[in-house]
Protein backbone atom coordinates (compact mmCIF):
# COMPACT_ATOMS: atom_id res chain seq x y z
CA UNK A 1 0.00 0.00 0.00
CA UNK A 2 2.85 2.40 0.87
CA UNK A 3 4.43 1.88 -2.56
CA UNK A 4 1.11 2.55 -4.30
CA UNK A 5 0.73 5.82 -2.40
CA UNK A 6 4.26 6.88 -3.30
CA UNK A 7 3.67 6.01 -6.97
CA UNK A 8 0.51 8.13 -6.92
CA UNK A 9 2.41 11.10 -5.50
CA UNK A 10 5.26 10.56 -7.98
CA UNK A 11 2.88 10.74 -10.95
CA UNK A 12 0.91 13.68 -9.58
CA UNK A 13 3.42 15.80 -7.66
CA UNK A 14 5.54 18.72 -8.76
CA UNK A 15 8.61 17.75 -10.74
CA UNK A 16 11.00 18.94 -8.05
CA UNK A 17 9.64 16.39 -5.55
CA UNK A 18 9.92 13.39 -7.88
CA UNK A 19 13.62 12.56 -7.28
CA UNK A 20 12.98 12.32 -3.53
CA UNK A 21 9.91 10.12 -4.02
CA UNK A 22 11.79 7.91 -6.49
CA UNK A 23 14.66 7.41 -4.04
CA UNK A 24 12.16 6.50 -1.31
CA UNK A 25 10.44 3.92 -3.53
CA UNK A 26 13.78 2.46 -4.56
CA UNK A 27 14.97 2.05 -0.97
CA UNK A 28 11.71 0.40 0.10
CA UNK A 29 12.05 -2.19 -2.69
CA UNK A 30 15.65 -3.18 -2.05
CA UNK A 31 17.59 -0.72 -4.21
CA UNK A 32 18.13 -0.20 -7.93
CA UNK A 33 18.93 -3.83 -8.62
CA UNK A 34 15.57 -5.14 -7.45
CA UNK A 35 12.97 -2.35 -7.44
CA UNK A 36 10.03 -3.29 -9.66
CA UNK A 37 8.37 0.12 -9.34
CA UNK A 38 11.54 1.90 -10.47
CA UNK A 39 11.56 -0.23 -13.61
CA UNK A 40 7.90 0.44 -14.23
CA UNK A 41 8.43 4.21 -13.95
CA UNK A 42 11.39 4.19 -16.34
CA UNK A 43 9.51 2.17 -18.91
CA UNK A 44 6.29 4.22 -18.71
CA UNK A 45 7.94 7.65 -18.48
CA UNK A 46 11.09 7.25 -20.56
CA UNK A 47 10.57 4.18 -22.77
CA UNK A 48 13.65 2.51 -21.25
CA UNK A 49 13.34 -1.18 -20.31
CA UNK A 50 15.69 -2.29 -17.50
CA UNK A 51 15.95 -5.95 -16.56
CA UNK A 52 16.05 -7.46 -13.08
CA UNK A 53 19.33 -7.08 -11.20
CA UNK A 54 20.69 -4.37 -13.50
CA UNK A 55 21.88 -1.13 -11.92
CA UNK A 56 23.79 2.11 -12.43
CA UNK A 57 23.68 4.39 -15.47
CA UNK A 58 20.66 2.62 -16.95
CA UNK A 59 18.65 4.67 -14.45
CA UNK A 60 20.34 8.01 -15.19
CA UNK A 61 18.02 10.48 -16.91
CA UNK A 62 19.53 13.66 -15.43
CA UNK A 63 21.53 14.38 -18.59
CA UNK A 64 19.38 12.37 -21.01
CA UNK A 65 22.18 9.79 -21.19
CA UNK A 66 19.72 6.99 -21.94
CA UNK A 67 17.18 7.75 -24.69
CA UNK A 68 13.96 5.88 -25.36
CA UNK A 69 14.02 2.59 -27.28
CA UNK A 70 16.88 1.17 -25.22
CA UNK A 71 16.52 -2.23 -23.55
CA UNK A 72 18.85 -3.54 -20.85
CA UNK A 73 18.85 -7.24 -20.00
CA UNK A 74 19.06 -8.75 -16.53
CA UNK A 75 22.06 -8.49 -14.19
CA UNK A 76 23.86 -5.73 -16.15
CA UNK A 77 26.51 -3.46 -14.63
CA UNK A 78 26.18 -0.01 -16.21
CA UNK A 79 28.60 2.80 -15.32
CA UNK A 80 26.88 6.09 -14.45
CA UNK A 81 28.87 8.03 -17.08
CA UNK A 82 27.88 6.09 -20.22
CA UNK A 83 26.29 7.85 -23.20
CA UNK A 84 23.92 6.22 -25.69
CA UNK A 85 23.02 7.95 -28.96
CA UNK A 86 20.20 6.69 -31.17
CA UNK A 87 20.32 9.14 -34.09
CA UNK A 88 22.85 10.81 -36.39
CA UNK A 89 22.67 14.12 -38.18
CA UNK A 90 21.64 13.26 -41.75
CA UNK A 91 24.60 13.29 -44.14
CA UNK A 92 22.85 13.53 -47.50
CA UNK A 93 20.97 16.79 -46.99
CA UNK A 94 22.58 20.07 -48.08
CA UNK A 95 23.08 20.81 -44.36
CA UNK A 96 23.42 18.74 -41.20
CA UNK A 97 21.72 21.48 -39.17
CA UNK A 98 18.66 20.51 -37.03
CA UNK A 99 16.49 22.94 -39.01
CA UNK A 100 15.70 20.11 -41.43
CA UNK A 101 14.72 17.47 -38.86
CA UNK A 102 14.08 18.96 -35.40
CA UNK A 103 10.78 20.81 -34.74
CA UNK A 104 12.51 22.92 -32.09
CA UNK A 105 14.39 24.67 -34.89
CA UNK A 106 11.09 25.98 -36.27
CA UNK A 107 10.78 24.48 -39.76
CA UNK A 108 9.51 20.88 -39.52
CA UNK A 109 6.49 19.84 -37.47
CA UNK A 110 7.86 16.56 -36.07
CA UNK A 111 11.17 14.82 -35.39
CA UNK A 112 12.30 13.28 -38.69
CA UNK A 113 15.32 11.33 -37.49
CA UNK A 114 15.39 7.54 -37.45
CA UNK A 115 16.02 6.30 -33.92
CA UNK A 116 16.57 2.52 -34.01
CA UNK A 117 16.08 0.32 -30.97
CA UNK A 118 19.14 -0.81 -29.01
CA UNK A 119 19.05 -4.18 -27.22
CA UNK A 120 21.67 -4.75 -24.54
CA UNK A 121 21.84 -8.39 -23.46
CA UNK A 122 22.09 -9.99 -20.03
CA UNK A 123 25.17 -9.66 -17.82
CA UNK A 124 26.65 -6.84 -19.90
CA UNK A 125 29.23 -4.52 -18.35
CA UNK A 126 29.49 -1.02 -19.82
CA UNK A 127 32.55 0.76 -18.43
CA UNK A 128 32.95 4.38 -17.38
CA UNK A 129 32.56 7.01 -20.11
CA UNK A 130 31.76 4.41 -22.78
CA UNK A 131 29.69 5.69 -25.71
CA UNK A 132 27.28 3.70 -27.88
CA UNK A 133 26.62 5.22 -31.31
CA UNK A 134 23.43 4.94 -33.42
CA UNK A 135 24.72 2.22 -35.79
CA UNK A 136 24.77 -0.23 -32.89
CA UNK A 137 21.64 -2.38 -32.61
CA UNK A 138 22.77 -5.02 -30.13
CA UNK A 139 25.33 -5.75 -27.45
CA UNK A 140 25.33 -9.47 -26.76
CA UNK A 141 25.00 -11.39 -23.51
CA UNK A 142 28.04 -11.28 -21.28
CA UNK A 143 29.86 -8.62 -23.30
CA UNK A 144 32.25 -6.11 -21.73
CA UNK A 145 32.77 -2.60 -23.11
CA UNK A 146 35.92 -1.04 -21.69
CA UNK A 147 36.11 2.41 -20.14
CA UNK A 148 36.08 5.35 -22.59
CA UNK A 149 35.35 3.05 -25.55
CA UNK A 150 33.32 4.29 -28.51
CA UNK A 151 31.16 1.48 -29.87
CA UNK A 152 30.35 1.86 -33.57
CA UNK A 153 29.03 -1.62 -34.43
CA UNK A 154 27.25 -4.56 -32.81
CA UNK A 155 29.14 -6.33 -30.03
CA UNK A 156 29.46 -10.11 -30.06
CA UNK A 157 28.23 -12.02 -26.97
CA UNK A 158 30.91 -12.59 -24.31
CA UNK A 159 33.45 -10.48 -26.19
CA UNK A 160 35.62 -7.76 -24.65
CA UNK A 161 35.86 -4.56 -26.70
CA UNK A 162 37.94 -1.46 -26.01
CA UNK A 163 39.14 1.68 -27.74
CA UNK A 164 37.95 4.34 -30.18
CA UNK A 165 36.51 2.87 -32.28
CA UNK A 166 35.97 -0.14 -30.01
CA UNK A 167 37.62 -3.36 -31.21
CA UNK A 168 37.47 -6.90 -29.86
CA UNK A 169 40.56 -7.78 -27.82
CA UNK A 170 39.36 -11.13 -26.50
CA UNK A 171 36.58 -13.41 -25.30
CA UNK A 172 35.58 -14.01 -21.71
CA UNK A 173 35.09 -17.75 -22.22
CA UNK A 174 35.69 -20.46 -24.79
CA UNK A 175 32.87 -21.72 -27.01
CA UNK A 176 32.12 -24.74 -24.83
CA UNK A 177 31.79 -22.56 -21.73
CA UNK A 178 29.61 -20.07 -23.59
CA UNK A 179 27.25 -22.83 -24.71
CA UNK A 180 26.94 -24.07 -21.12
CA UNK A 181 26.17 -20.58 -19.82
CA UNK A 182 23.64 -19.90 -22.56
CA UNK A 183 21.91 -23.23 -21.90
CA UNK A 184 21.70 -22.51 -18.18
CA UNK A 185 19.83 -19.20 -18.72
CA UNK A 186 21.00 -18.25 -15.23
CA UNK A 187 20.03 -14.62 -15.79
CA UNK A 188 16.36 -15.60 -15.53
CA UNK A 189 16.88 -16.36 -11.83
CA UNK A 190 16.08 -13.84 -9.13
CA UNK A 191 18.51 -13.08 -6.32
CA UNK A 192 17.77 -15.90 -3.85
CA UNK A 193 17.53 -18.54 -6.58
CA UNK A 194 20.79 -17.34 -8.10
CA UNK A 195 22.62 -17.37 -4.77
CA UNK A 196 21.66 -21.02 -4.33
CA UNK A 197 23.16 -21.88 -7.74
CA UNK A 198 26.42 -19.91 -7.57
CA UNK A 199 28.56 -23.00 -6.92
CA UNK A 200 26.94 -24.94 -9.76
CA UNK A 201 27.26 -22.06 -12.23
CA UNK A 202 30.86 -21.39 -11.24
CA UNK A 203 31.76 -24.94 -12.19
CA UNK A 204 30.46 -24.41 -15.73
CA UNK A 205 33.46 -22.24 -16.52
CA UNK A 206 36.13 -24.04 -14.46
- Helix amount, in percent? 25-40%
- Rg calculated over all Cα atoms: 19 Å
Shape: flat
Our measurement of the CA-to-CA distance between the termini, rounded to an integer number of angstroms, reads 46 Å
By CATH, the topology of the largest domain is: UDP N-Acetylglucosamine Acyltransferase, domain 1
- β-strand percent reads 15-25%
Q: Average pLDDT value?
A: 92
Number of beta strands: 13
Unreliable residue runs: none
Number of domains: 2
CATH superfamily of the largest domain: Hexapeptide repeat proteins
Largest sheet: 6 strands, mixed
**SSE string, helices as H and strands as E:** HHHEEEEEEEEEEEEEHHH
| Largest beta sheet: strand ordering | 2-4-7-10-12-13
The number of helical runs is 6
Oligomeric category? single chain
CATH architecture level-2 label of the largest domain:
3 Solenoid
Please outline what is shown here.
The protein is built from 6 helices and 13 strands.
Descriptive account of the structure:
The chain has 6 helices and 13 strands. It has 2 domains: 45-172, Hexapeptide repeat proteins (UDP N-Acetylglucosamine Acyltransferase, domain 1, 3 Solenoid); 173-206, no CATH class. α1 runs antiparallel to α2. The protein has a 6-stranded mixed β-sheet with strand order 2-4-7-10-12-13, with no helix packed on it. Strands 1-3-6-9 form a 4-stranded parallel β-sheet. Helices cover 27% and strands 17% of the residues. It has helices at residues 2-12, 18-28, 36-46, 175-184, 191-196, 198-203, and strands at residues 48-50, 55-56, 70-72, 77-78, 83-84, 118-120, 125-126, 131-132, 138-139, 144-145, 150-151, 159-162, 167-171. It starts with a helix and ends with a helix. It is an alpha/beta fold and 206 residues long. The radius of gyration is 19 Å and the shape is flat.
Amino acid sequence: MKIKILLFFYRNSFKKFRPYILRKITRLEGGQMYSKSLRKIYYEKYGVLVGYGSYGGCFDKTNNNIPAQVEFGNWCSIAPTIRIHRANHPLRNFTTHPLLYNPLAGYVEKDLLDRPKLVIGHDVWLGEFSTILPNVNSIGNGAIVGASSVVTKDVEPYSIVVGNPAKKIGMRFNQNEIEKLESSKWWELERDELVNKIDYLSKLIN
